[in-house]
Specification:
Radius of gyration: 18 Å
Number of strands: 7
Helix content: 40-55%
CATH topology: Rossmann fold
CATH class: Alpha Beta
Bound molecules: NADP nicotinamide-adenine-dinucleotide phosphate
Order of helices and strands: HEHEHEHHEHEHEHHHE
Number of domains: 1
Strand content: 15-25%
Length: about 270
């Protein structure tokens, strides 16, 4: 895998926390001799700390460029590629990971601001990032080459109460991903979807507007996945032989068999 990823430039959105952060480390460890990472999110300082830690502890072969980028702001995305330092411009892998859920409200009580945040981050942002990076892929020989890895969710396959907007955004990611794979059929662009089940990250803290106690209750009595578990799958998909497309994955912890109620919790 190290040989296949050697020399590649990987851009990860939402790299300041959770799955995105773990994915940065996993790529760095896997191709430590020669790799470039562009780490993006809104918290620049956190990205800078991660960049310094990777360069110091994983090795001189990994060059990291931290970049403040709010994917919900389409204007910020337009033109960001031109502003990248020359040595980071030739992106090979885009990991569209930035995403979030806000609240557990049901219609008609869902806050319009939350609706907008979820749709503009999870859907419009992911599509805008893809459109910004694809022209780089399509300039390459034989119709173009590169990997788009979209982080979806079990929520995109099984809608649940109190998650209607989040579920709708992840279903949109799924449809966009499947359409894009068909659109790229004559190229060497691989379009990949990684759908996690329950993973313990800042995800639930964000969902409950910073209430850590409510977030912790989500994971009480069960053993969720770690962000490293998902990072391993993401890097595995990028590290396959070029003709192999891991088009679709669904990853659960042992106690989960679906969204919402399909979850076993030990009595506490
Ligand atoms: N955790 C789960 O159970 C689970 C399950 C299925 C799917 N997922 C998906 O996995 C992905 C990663 O989530 P996570 O669990 O790792 O949660 P997390 O720990 O909260 O990380 C989310 C990341 O997204 C970034 N982000 C949020 N809004 C952004 C914006 N407008 N622009 C740029 N970056 C933004 C955050 O960075 P900043 O705050 O610094 O911008 C953060 O780095 C999401 O797409 C989520 O839907 C998670």
């Amino acid at each position: 895998m190290a040989n296949r990823l050697k020399g590649k430039t990987v851009l990860i959105t939402g790299a300041s926390s959770g799955i995105g952060r773990s994915t940065a480390y996993e790529f760095a460890r896997t191709a430590a001799s020669d790799l470039k990472l562009i780490l993006t999110a809104r918290r620049l300082e956190t990205l800078q700390e991660i960049a310094a830690d990777i360069e110091k502890n994983i090795g001189k072969g990994v060059k990291v460029y931290p970049l403040k980028l709010d994917v919900s702001n389409v204007q910020e995305i337009q033109g960001f590629v031109e502003k990248l330092p020359q040595e980071f411009k030739e992106i090979d892998v885009l990991v569209n990971n930035a995403g979030l859920v806000k609240g557990v409200a049901k219609a008609p009580e869902i806050n319009p601001l939350d609706i907008n945040t979820m749709i503009s981050t999870n859907v419009t942002g992911l599509i805008a990032m893809t459109q910004a990076v694809l022209p780089i892929f399509l300039k390459r020989p034989n119709g173009g080459a590169g990997d788009i890895i979209n982080v979806g969710s079990i929520a995109g396959r099984e809608p649940y109460q109190g998650g209607s907007i989040y579920c709708a955004t992840k279903a949109a990611v799924r449809s966009f991903t499947d359409s894009l794979r068909r659109e790229m059929i004559s190229t060497r662009v691989r379009v990949i979807e990684v759908d996690p089940g329950q993973v313990e990250t800042e995800f639930s803290v964000v969902r409950f507007y910073g209430d850590k106690e409510k977030a912790d209750a989500v994971y009480a009595g069960c053993d969720p996945l770690t962000p490293d578990d998902i990072a391993e799958v993401i890097v595995f998909t990028a590290g396959r032989r070029e003709n192999v497309v891991i088009a679709d994955t669904l990853i659960f912890p042992q106690h989960q068999a679906g969204a919402g109620g399909a979850m076993y919790k030990k009595p506490t």
